[in-house]
What does this fold into?
Amino acid sequence: MRRMFSKWPLTIIALMLFAACGSSGPVTKPPSPPVEMPAGITPSPIIVTPAPPQVTPASETVVPPSTTPAAGDNPAQAPFLIYRIQQKEQGVTVVAFDPARGEERDVVILPFEAGTDAYVYGSALPAPDQSRLAASVSSPGVQRVYLISNGEARLIISAEGEHAIGAWSPDGSRFLVFSTKESAQGCIQNTCYYDIYVIDAATGAETRLTATGDAEVDAVWSPDGKQIAFLRGCTDLSIDECGPDLYLMNADGSNERLLAEGWVTNPVFLGPDQLAYIRRTSDGAGVYRTRITGGTPQAIIDDPQMNVVGMRISPDRRMIAFLDVRGGCQIEECVRTIYLVATDSGDLRPIRPVDAQRYAWGWTPDGRLWLLLSNDDSQSRLVLYAADGTLIDERVIEWQP
It folds into this structure.
């Protein structure tokens, strides 16, 4: 059976997609590519787009947080940066925005040639210690992957095909790339056959981890960096076993094994030996956990009325933030509500609705706060919460996604 994935820019691969509609069908490439913005020093992309759901890798940095800020702390100073790719007069530029301070700065001008009228888009994803950035940049007919450090950009992949960056390893020594450059099928209309590659950040050397006739995406590292979970699937909705299914392999691509079947999305590690994921059905989408050794999955959220998208796990892996999306966002009005769920007990806490069509969110690296940015064309807002969902601050800021 041939398995495929939509030709959607894959660092949406998913946060996490985070700004999402509730479709359970295949995802097609939108007419206007989304703006992808990774957060701070965590390796989780922050997505700003009203697109159909897909998944972004969750943070693999484990830092024990305190539940709420200590007295005297200024939560606005929590390190949280948003990166984006922008076509400027001087060239295609990686830009960093600090929402807490309302400041934006240019990081580096990429050696990427694009026509004056060409639409350029992409994403930049920081290593856990923010010493390096991985970036993917695209314009019609041209795609590149860069490694950025010390203010310089090194070209990593320039071959023909579709390329997108994935998660950094927890120690920041490697990052993942999804590419069709060696795929026999390449892309057919809006469907691509992606393979997973790992890039050594010190040398730029690449290793191909998957080489099948299927498509593999949404790969995330285990907290110890020894294993990688990923999805393999197709687009034929008439075939129940079509997937995407959840697989696990060693970090060198060996010892691949199937963990869960049936329209799985958004895998995140709850610890070195346990994974959580969203499983979609005709009734909605729930959250389940499974051990990497196998066994019967256990439900964390099993409510047929909920349509879970865009899971983000806290750095200590005790809480998951996600969206419950009701309605078809591209067809009619939909309702998006942010929830928190405790990974051990499954206790749910609704936080707030998200009314804006453009928004971004993520946990701060220490796990003590999470932030929500939203823009409704008239103004932008920054909202800060403690890890338990307690509102700390809300303000109007200068931000144009």
